[in-house]
Structure formats: structure tokens, C-alpha cells
Amino acid sequence: MSAMTWVITTFLCGVIGAFSPSSNADETINYLSFATEDEANTTEVFQRASPAVVFVTSSELRRQRFSRNIMEIPRGAGSGFIWDAAAGLIVTNYHVVAGADRLAITLRNEQQYAAEVVGLAPERDLAVLRMITPPDGLTSLPLGDSSELSVGRKVMAIGNPFGLDTTLTVGVVSALDREIQSPSNRVIRGVIQTDAAINPGNSGGPLLNSLGQLIGVNTAIYSPSGGSAGIGFAIPVNTVTEVVPQLIAYGKIMRPVLGVELASDRWLRQFRVEGVPIVRTYRGFPAESVGMIGARRGDRGEIILGDVITHIEGKPVTSNDEFLTAMEQHRVGDTIAVTTLRFGEQKRFSIELSNAQ
User: Could you tell me if 246 and 265 lie in one domain?
Assistant: First the structure.
């Protein structure tokens, strides 16, 4: 055997020996010990957060056409998460529970509990449910701050797609300040876009950061086929923390009012009006008290516009959605500046907002 052949043979034997099974347990490669720091973080977050994620199923009651029998028809399913462990409160998407007559919450241990609606916010696609007889030992998620997010940060979506066990998908923040359409056709602003797969059953589940904090509620995907296509959206947690307490206290979002009826967006488009015309003012409300006037019909039946709202706090208002969004930035008792156009003349009002009576 030549010297070169001896060297090659010795080297190969050494390599093969290094990867051969060893009888010594200390020399056995342990896969778990080779988990990367990122993998360990993902696993830890999933294990801690999973008990707080639930499966939400809804059904409706229908009377059979030719009998008096009542049938229970499955309506929808999605995910949710425990908001208040002591009270058994669950947060999910509005579209998961819309129109339901009966609701059920299934925990990770596969135990199912009846639930009821506490509050609904279709304009934000959020809903709060209450487990009627919540068990002991529930756990909730810590809250993060969605204003601290930036593109490229790691996110994790947990849900219960297709009625399977709790599942995890991982991705990054793809974009911020997106806009999507709510079930009530209102625009939801400031939405988080992520490439973490959000399948239909993930709707209502939590979007978490690497600390395991809630930073959003998964709500929608953009896909022609209906499956995940790398573009998912989540309602930011800062919106959730603003809306959910109102749903718990009042059952809906409470916004201050001017006391006006506005023309529809369809009417605005048809007649190409810049701003939002006031159709009428309500007696005893702020708009009437400061002298705003609504539209009226002339002697020949034509519509004569009164005040047309063009700006609130200096920001343009061109639709009902923009008007409502502006109102939602304030509270009852706040004084706001409203600019209108009346008979071609610009008018400015200082109005103290009131509660809906």
C-alpha cells in the first residue's frame, strides 16, 4: 500500500467512525441540545401561550319548513384567546360569531363550555365572549405594545385551524399601518401585515412577539384561493386594548356624538359633494345648540344643502367612515373644532361632544 493510499484510508476511517453509533451515552448526539436560540424561543413561547388559546364554534337555530322542529346548524368556527381568566372572558373576531344563536368554547384539554356574547364591534372585527361556567386554572396572555413593532420583527400566530389541535406558524412583520375592510364595511386602520400563515381557522387567534406578548389579533388573509398565501393581517393590540374594555362595559364601542344625521356615501358619490352634508340635526344635541343646520327641500322640490362638514380638528372629512374615525379619537366632554361649508361660505364651530342618549 502506497503512502498516499494509507493516508486516504486512515482519514476515511476516522470520518466514518465519528458518525457511527457509539455505545458511550455521553458521546451520543442529543438533538435537543443543538436547538438554536431562535428555535428555543419559538418553542418556549408556544408552550407558554397555547393554554390561553381556545377554539370557538358557533351555530344557529332554524325551524324546519314543514314542521315545528328546531334544528341546530353549524355556522362558523375560529380561534380566540382568554382575556380575563377569572371572569372567563374570551376575545375573538366578530366574523367568527356573527349571527350565532349558540356559542361553544373548547379549551386545549378538549373540554367544551357554553359561552355568550358580551360585546360586538363589527367595525373593528372584534368580539368579547363569556364562558358561562368557566373552569379554574385558566390563563391569559401578557399584553405587548404594537407601536413598538417594526418591519422584520419576528411574530408567531397561534390558532386552531380546521378544528385541529393548537398549531403554530412563524413569520415576520411584513408591513405596518395597512388598511382592511371590516364586516361592517368600515375601514380598519393601522393593521399589521405578516407572512406568518393565517389559515381560516386562525381567525381570532393571537399574534405574539418573541417575548410571548400579545401584539395583534389575527383577522384576515389575502388570497384568491382562500388559503394562506403569505399575506395575513392582524388587528394591533393597541386597538384591541382600546375596544375590548368598551365591549365589556357597554357591549359596543361608545363614541361621542354631534347629534347629526349625515348623507350616505353613495349619495356623496352620486352628487359629487366635497365633504359630508348634514341631513338633519337632533334636538338637544351639540350640533343644534351651536347653530348647525341640515338640508331642506326648496319650493320646487330640489334639495338645498345646509352645513357640509369638511374638516374636524383641521383634518379633511370626505366620507362617513372618516367622520366616524374622527369621532372615535375623542371622548364625551371633549371640545373639537368643526369646519363646514354653508351656501358657499366657510363656517367654524367649537363643539363640546356629548353622549348618545
Answer: no
332, 336, 342, 344: CA torsion to nearest 10: -150
| Mean pLDDT confidence for 73-77 | 63
Three-state DSSP class for 278?
A: strand
Asked if residues 153 and 194 have their Cβ atoms less than 8 Å apart, the reply is: no
Classify residue 136: in a domain, yes or no.
no
What is d(CA 17, CA 11) in angstroms, rounded to the nearest whole number?
A: 10
Q: What residues form DSSP beta bridges with 79?
A: 55
Range of the domain at 116: 49-131
Looking at residue 274, which CATH number applies to its domain?
2.30.42.10
- Any catalytic annotation for residue 225? no
Question: Active site includes 330?
Answer: no
What is the average pLDDT value for the chain, to the nearest integer?
A: 83
Over pLDDT 90: what percentage of the chain? 49
How big is the chain by its Cα radius of gyration, in Å?
Answer: 28
Domain total of the chain: 4
Write out the H or E segment, with its range, that includes residue 53.
strand 53-63
Q: Report pTM.
A: 0.78
Question: Per residue in 150-186, pLDDT tens?
Answer: 999 999 999 876 556 788 899 999 999 998 888 888 8
* List 79, 146, 182, 203, catalytic entry: 203
Domain membership flag for residue 84: yes
- Distance set, CA 4 to CA 12, 14, 16, 296, 320 (Å): 13, 16, 19, 104, 85
Asked if residue 68 belongs to a domain, the reply is: yes
List, for residues 304-335, the tens digit of each pLDDT value: 888 999 999 999 999 998 998 888 888 888 99
| pLDDT band for position 116 (cuts 50, 70, 90) | very high
**Cβ atoms of residues 178 and 193 within 8 Å:** yes
Catalytic residue among 58, 79, 125, 228: 125
Residues written for the chain: 357
Cell 314542521 appears where? Answer: 67
Q: Is 95 among the residues known to form the active site?
A: yes
Q: Pick the catalytic residue: 58, 79, 95, 195?
A: 95
